[in-house]
């Protein structure tokens, strides 16, 4: 269904002269695809100016220069290690051309004795003698037009030279058709942007260094086109989800009132605001798909429970899914006692639930005797059947793309979904990766929580740190000691943790425990249990404790080699000691030398506890692809837009997409039809199909 006007851009790169068997794979790997359009999105990284054309006597070494010379003499190599030399001159001086790869015939054919040639390349001076190794161009005066005044430089890969990619690109650019204008006319004038084709051609022919910058006129225009395609596609998916009929969940509020009466604290105004948004979604006749962000310890779990009770009040079932068994158990520990007081049943189902226990849970679930089911991925196996599942909460599952989120709800009948995360997500990522979802955030911590005292300390002071720890532990404190991500391949993270555990054991004896990712779930749980009870005072761990471990009594966190961790990860780890109402301390131990980025990260950690600010900084320091410490599935890697420079354009595109769908929901106006071409151009075909269906 792709519009015919785009056919030339979606032809295979094999149709370009010069791309044959040998070069097809390197080129397609370099440009990230096998279509001509992939080649066109591969923008230049530099330009070579060949307009400097001096006499040899005046030529400045170290510069790219173009000279007109006569060929005086060939000096073939005497041994295999020597280069082939050709002596050339003009009426002011001499130059030696050097060829390390010797193809004698071709050199003699290109540079016959006595001939005049235009030669362009980088000029060097060696012991006062001018030299040029492997000139970029050797042309006869009658072919002078073949020597460009300036040349575009592209990112390259093994086997592909600047000359080759320029040749391919020139052919690809001749295939760009005149496309209809999909941008608002006034906006186009206001930005002083060219039409799409002109912008693309100019981006591939930069005249000045400034034309290569992300904020140049051409690149901004192309980035905006890509961002608009992304935002429009997500807005269409979102519109479709919104139109899926759901069930109106309007409980009578009895269970929720009872729960609020027995809680030992009052909800923050941020929690109340978020609950109102969720209840409004639940009450609407359409399906709910909402993302709830809240920093560690901001009280997401109680919000999840209250919103689940809304479904239970309507006589239906709710489920909450966590990424790990530890987290699922933690939810059970929090929710089961509260449910009991309300005379409800909450049960746990994980991969470890086997035999008769599992059978009994499955039977009672299908009979509707279990109101709330808590579990891991195991909830979504074939044989798990609910009597009437109306509401699903997915916790800490930022590894899910759009499609998995939708498949989760297939278990129930028009199920509402709430996705929760404690990893603060920068606004740009919310728009590009979660644009199909409504969005709420709890931006307030419960009253009485004290800020964490974060200190940055060089690793050589580790003895003093251990002495300080000894005093604190004697006073009844509990602490985490997180071991570094190991960079050297010969040692694993585990070896580092075991070494640290052994050295601390000599000082603290049995009061030290160790958890790491290679342990069996059972062993890990047993150690965590002892730490919770206070039998273990100091827990040495690899980063397995990052997500969701809840020990309010732990108030000290030591992170060794903190310079090796990302910002989001440091913030998550520090969140482990923000569970209770005691003052807590986080010590970031670093080793010299510190890179600029690492220094900045540690400073941000020392100065701020605002997860949302930290997430924005993390995006700035690391770029989009690696946010959240896991490669973001469902997160678009942009070809033309760069989130460090084009954030403002993303926000405009987001507003533009909303307005387009309000005014022209079926994309039938002239601009709407042009926007369909845009969606196909950036390969959002699925969205267009979705739209049609």
Would you mind describing this structure in some detail?
The chain has 693 residues and is of the alpha/beta class. The strands form four sheets. Strands 6-7-4-3-2-5-8 form a seven-stranded mixed β-sheet. A seven-stranded parallel β-sheet has the order 12-13-11-14-15-10-16, with helices on both faces. The longest helix has 27 residues, at 217-243.
Secondary structure: number of strands: 22
Provide the residue-averaged pLDDT: 87
Distance between the amino and carboxyl termini: 13 Å
By DSSP (H or I, 4+ residues per run), the number of helices equals 23
Largest sheet: 7 strands, mixed
Structural class: alpha/beta
Low-confidence stretches: 624-635
Helix content: 25-40%
Beta-strand portion reads 15-25%
Q: How many whole angstroms does the radius of gyration measure? A: 32 Å
Strand order in space, largest sheet:
6-7-4-3-2-5-8
Which geometry do the CA atoms define?
globular
Task: Give a concise summary.
With 693 residues, the protein is α/β, with parallel strands linked by helices.
Question: Any chance you could write out the topology, listing elements then pairs?
Answer:
Layout: H1 21-31, H2 36-40, E1 46-49, E2 64-75, E3 84-90, E4 93-99, H3 104-110, E5 116-122, E6 124-126, E7 129-133, E8 137-139, E9 150-153, H4 162-173, H5 185-191, H6 196-204, H7 217-243, H8 254-262, H9 269-283, E10 289-294, H10 300-313, E11 317-321, H11 325-341, E12 346-349, H12 355-366, E13 372-375, E14 389-395, H13 402-408, E15 416-421, H14 427-433, E16 438-442, E17 452-458, H15 462-474, E18 478-482, H16 493-508, E19 512-515, H17 521-533, E20 538-541, E21 554-559, H18 567-574, E22 584-590, H19 596-607, H20 611-622, H21 647-663, H22 670-681, H23 685-692
Helix pairs in contact: 6-7, 7-21, 7-23, 8-10, 9-10, 19-20
């Amino acid at each position: 269904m792709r519009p015919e006007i785009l056919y030339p851009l979606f032809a295979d790169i094999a149709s370009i002269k010069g791309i044959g068997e040998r070069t097809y794979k390197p080129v397609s790997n370099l440009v990230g695809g096998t279509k001509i359009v992939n080649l066109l999105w591969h923008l230049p990284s530099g330009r070579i100016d060949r307009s400097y054309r001096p006499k040899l006597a005046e030529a400045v070494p170290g510069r790219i220069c173009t000279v007109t010379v006569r060929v005086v003499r060939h000096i073939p190599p005497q041994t295999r290690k020597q280069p082939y030399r050709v002596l050339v001159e003009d009426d002011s001086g001499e130059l030696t051309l050097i060829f390390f790869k010797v193809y004698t015939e071709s050199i003699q054919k290109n540079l016959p004795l006595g001939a005049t040639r235009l030669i362009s390349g980088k000029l060097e001076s060696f012991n006062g003698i001018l030299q040029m190794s492997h000139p970029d161009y050797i042309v006869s005066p009658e072919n002078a037009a073949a020597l460009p005044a300036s040349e575009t430089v592209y990112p390259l890969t093994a086997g592909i030279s600047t000359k080759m990619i320029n040749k391919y690109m020139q052919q690809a650019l001749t295939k760009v058709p005149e496309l209809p204008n999909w941008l608002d006319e006034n906006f186009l004038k206001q930005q002083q942007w060219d039409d799409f084709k002109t912008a693309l051609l100019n981006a591939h022919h930069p005249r000045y260094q400034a034309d290569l910058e992300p904020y140049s006129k051409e690149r901004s225009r192309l980035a905006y086109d890509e961002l608009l395609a992304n935002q429009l596609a997500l807005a269409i998916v979102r519109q479709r989800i919104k139109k899926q009929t759901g069930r109106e969940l309007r409980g009578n509020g009895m269970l929720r009132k009872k729960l609020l009466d027995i809680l030992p604290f009052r909800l923050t105004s941020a929690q109340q605001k978020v609950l109102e948004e969720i209840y409004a979604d639940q009450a609407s006749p359409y399906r709910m798909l909402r993302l709830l962000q809240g920093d560690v310890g901001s009280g997401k779990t109680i919000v999840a429970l209250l919103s689940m009770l809304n479904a239970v009040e309507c006589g239906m079932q709710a489920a909450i899914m966590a990424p790990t068994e530890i987290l699922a158990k933690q939810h059970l520990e929090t929710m089961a006692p509260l449910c009991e007081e309300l005379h409800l049943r909450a049960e746990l189902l994980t991969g470890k639930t086997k035999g008769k226990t599992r059978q009994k849970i499955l039977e009672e679930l299908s009979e509707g005797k279990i109101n709330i089911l808590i579990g891991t991925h195991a909830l979504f196996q074939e044989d798990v059947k609910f009597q009437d599942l109306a509401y699903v909460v997915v916790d800490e599952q930022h590894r899910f793309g759009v499609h998995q989120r939708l498949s989760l709800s297939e278990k129930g009948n028009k199920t509402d979904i709430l996705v929760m995360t404690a990893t603060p997500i920068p606004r740009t990522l919310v728009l590009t990766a979660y644009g199909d979802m409504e969005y709420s955030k709890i931006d307030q911590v419960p009253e009485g929580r004290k800020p964490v005292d974060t200190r940055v300390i060089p690793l050589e002071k580790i003895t003093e740190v251990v002495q300080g720890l000894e005093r604190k532990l004697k006073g009844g404190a509990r602490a985490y000691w997180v071991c570094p991500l190991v960079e050297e391949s010969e040692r694993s993270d585990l070896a580092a943790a075991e070494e640290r555990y052994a050295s601390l054991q000599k000082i603290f004896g049995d009061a030290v425990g160790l958890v790491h990712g290679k342990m069996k779930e059972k062993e890990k749980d047993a150690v965590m249990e002892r730490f919770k009870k206070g039998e273990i005072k100091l827990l040495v761990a690899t980063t397995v404790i990052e997500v969701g471990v809840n020990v309010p009594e732990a108030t000290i966190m030591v992170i060794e080699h903190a310079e090796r961790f990302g910002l989001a990860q440091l913030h998550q780890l520090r969140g482990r000691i923000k569970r209770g109402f005691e003052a807590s301390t986080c010590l970031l131990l670093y080793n010299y030398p510190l890179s600029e980025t690492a220094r900045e990260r540690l400073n941000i950690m020392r100065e701020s506890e605002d997860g949302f600010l930290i997430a924005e900084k993390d995006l700035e320091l690391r770029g989009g692809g690696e946010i959240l410490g896991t490669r973001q599935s469902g997160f678009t890697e942009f070809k033309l837009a760069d989130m460090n420079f084009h954030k403002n354009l993303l926000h405009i595109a987001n507003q533009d997409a909303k307005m387009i769908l309000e005014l022209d929901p079926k994309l039938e106006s002239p601009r709407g039809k042009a926007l369909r071409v845009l969606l196909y151009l950036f390969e959002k075909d699925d969205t267009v199909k979705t739209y049609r269906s």
